[in-house]
Amino acid sequence: MQQRQAISILIPVFNEEDHIGRLLMSLTGLRADNEVLVIDGGSNDNTVALVEAFIASASLKGPRFRLLHNPARRQAEALNIGLQAAEHPICLRLDGHLLIAPGCDLQQDIDSVLSLSQGSQHCCAAGFKQRFLGRGLIDCAVALLAATPFLSGFSRYRYATKPCLTWKTAWLFCVDRELALQIGGFDSSTTPNEDQNFNRRLIAHTGKPILIYPQLPLYYQPRCTLSGLMRQYFNYGLARARASWLQAPGRRSPWMIAGATLHLLITLIYASAILSRPALYGNTLLFILGCNLLSVALDPLHWFRNASLEKPGLQILIAALVLSPLIAVVPSLARSSGTLWEFIRPSQRESAAPANA
To answer: What are the chain's domains?
Structure first.
């Protein structure tokens, strides 16, 4: 593959008025042969108006920008609409609320990942490192937890510091459009876990792993409220259970129920232990701090080391660190609860059907 191949960038959005303008402006430095497809899922804020005004701007330079509409209002359907409408054979998916580090040479970074992934016979797609960026109390605590197994497990797309392969999943993607369509695109019934489901099917179809490319300076902004964080991970739990039923109805459910129940119990035991034992709470704090110091030391693009990124105040950072052992309970508790809730709703299981079948 030539290094200068044009691409289609897919950006599903819903109520992103606070972020979409900044993201689109950061893409104007790309070459004119690229295209950017913004797929709106029925936003009821100023997202559409901002995108339309941006596209109509007389001073607009760079790639071609297009606005598409997603009446289904699900992110998986937005991505499928983007895949169908894309004019180039390679599609790169971005999120409407992510931050691209100012001052970076994004075109050069994209050319590099294309050259590396498309020139390799050992991977089926490329994914990127998910770096968390927090400014408030809750999102900063989540960003701190993202450097630990509490939130990230041992996912390579969270820990990678150099290109590597994974047989699991990745954050966002850069994939061959025809290959994505061959496997049926994204399954909307697994929303909001459609990325993991897509990557699992992609790996199974090709027999090849995904390349994790950590050099792209992309930063994820997590939920900034506890209620938003709970809803997000509860929905993740629902989606994973639903995907299990669609893959093998009834056959895997006992194991999923047992796993979710065990996960819930461990979370409750952990919460009870750190609340009743100050020494354990302190040791957990030191563990989280150590993981973050290691992450800062190993990752040259870590948000704390990137001078172009806005940092949280010292008071917020300290408060977020102190609260992080408790905040860790929220996603864990919500996800296992979502999985169990999906399995105790027999009507939902019986009526479930693959949306992209």
So the answer is: 8-220 (3.90.550.10), 226-351 (no CATH)
